[in-house]
Amino acid sequence: MYQHILICTDGSALSHKAVSNGIALAAALGAQVLAYTVVPKYPHWNSDTRMPMTQSETANFENERAMEAQAIVDAVREEAHERDVKIIALTGKGAIAENIIRAAKKHHCDLIVMASHGRKGMQRLLLGSETLDVLTHTHIPVLVLR
Hints:
The protein is an alpha/beta fold. The chain is built from 5 helices and 7 strands. The protein has a 5-stranded parallel β-sheet, with helices on both faces. A two-stranded antiparallel sheet has the order 3-4. α3 (about 95-105) packs across α5 (about 130-135). The longest helix is centred in the middle third of the chain and has 28 residues, at about 55-80. The radius of gyration is 16 Å and the shape is elongated. It starts with a strand and ends with a strand.
């Protein structure tokens, strides 16, 4: 059935449900996992001074986010190893849905597993939905957990 499953995570409690279920599915099917998180682009403004960040502030901020992203996928790697699931753990940077779809294609994934944060109403309109964007723009099956 599925041989290479991309599991998306942002480190949240809800996305951990997708991680756990995705790893369990991979273990049951004997599939390989690609754990993936994306560091979104952030506005380069200092929230304290309300001024543009300096180049060094921007670099420090981006390095912190990259380290956080690596810690997220490292935790998924540990969980997969506990279940004897073969795993690759990667991070991306930029547009979230676009990066997820690109990674799934590049690594020949045949299933994407991700969580839906369940935003409704105005919040969904304002914040958008990365899950919906992935569902809308990929031809790869997507398993969405809530």
